User: Fold Rod shape-determining protein RodA from Leptotrichia mesophila.
Amino acid sequence: MFQNQRLNDMRNNIRRIDKMILLIVYALVMISTIFVYSATRQGGMVVKNMLWIGIGTVLVFLIAAVDYKNVKYFIRHIYGICVILLLLVRFAGKKTLGAQRWIALGPFQLQPSEFVKIAIVIIIAYWIVNKYKSGINNLNDIIGAVLPVTPLILLILIQPDLGTTLITVSAFLFMIFLYGANMKPIWIIGIVLMLSVYPIYKFVLSDYQRTRVETFLHPETDRKGSGWHVIQSKISVGAGGFLGKGVLQGSQSRLEFLPEAQTDFIFSVLSEELGFVGSSLVLLLYFALIFEIMRISRIVQDDFGRLILYGIAGVIFMHVIVNVGMTIGLVPVTGKPLLFMSYGGSSFLASFIMIGIVESIKIHNN
Assistant:
């Protein structure tokens, strides 16, 4: 009897899974596998990519089977684990390319910030639902809503990981905006910050910091130094034209002009080989994924689940904006991956965990 009930529950869960989300995700990861190979010409990386996809798939179905509302009972534990992981990064982490963001676990390098940003979304959702039932109505409420996770955000910022910090803060703003918060204080702060950009640049920044800003705005002034990545990326994107050179025909990655082609600049490889048409279709897949998550949020009865969906949609959206903007020189190079596309175990697993949470919310709502 009990076994039959479990089988029925499993059938109901599978029936309630959002198939469109899975279709989009697996379209993206299959495209990723093709272009990781195109960027590296290494079969080993393709095998690892497929391994992460396999592990991620298991995570999606395991997480989807569990009622997401149970996480409320473990919020303090999740917070504590996040603090421990970020402190481990701070004091015993591996430093690569000037940033200390990874923990070495044998052959695998764990990047905790990729998982912590998901935890931050969940913690914020829990905090808002319990403390701001009457709404977020002023600046004090906005500050209070983000206050519990501020230590986590600061620990990410000092790694330094400006990209994840930006994505996390943007996801928070995305959440409170869709929750119906009074955003007037945010607009005022935003305007003040915009008006203060030039005075800060002129009178606050040191010479080397001003040089970094100028190199970002004009990378050709340091072609062989800090401007190299962006210049080569823009060449890749531009070389693709309308229809692209064809899969495996990109010269920038094949001749190793494009650094970190399989991770940070996977979109540049894709743009060179598939052109404007192909890269636009990939971007449409991302926006279809975000649209589907937002569609689920409209039918969810629970504020906690709805806020988590807002946060996950915000994280995915900002990853796309930051990574794609980085490849065409609109955003500084921050090393943020294109989710489901860039090579990397932490990024892949964190992305699949988010999809598992989305599916759990879809399944376990009336």
In short: The two ends are 24 Å apart (CA to CA). The chain has one domain: 71-335. The chain has a mean pLDDT of 86.
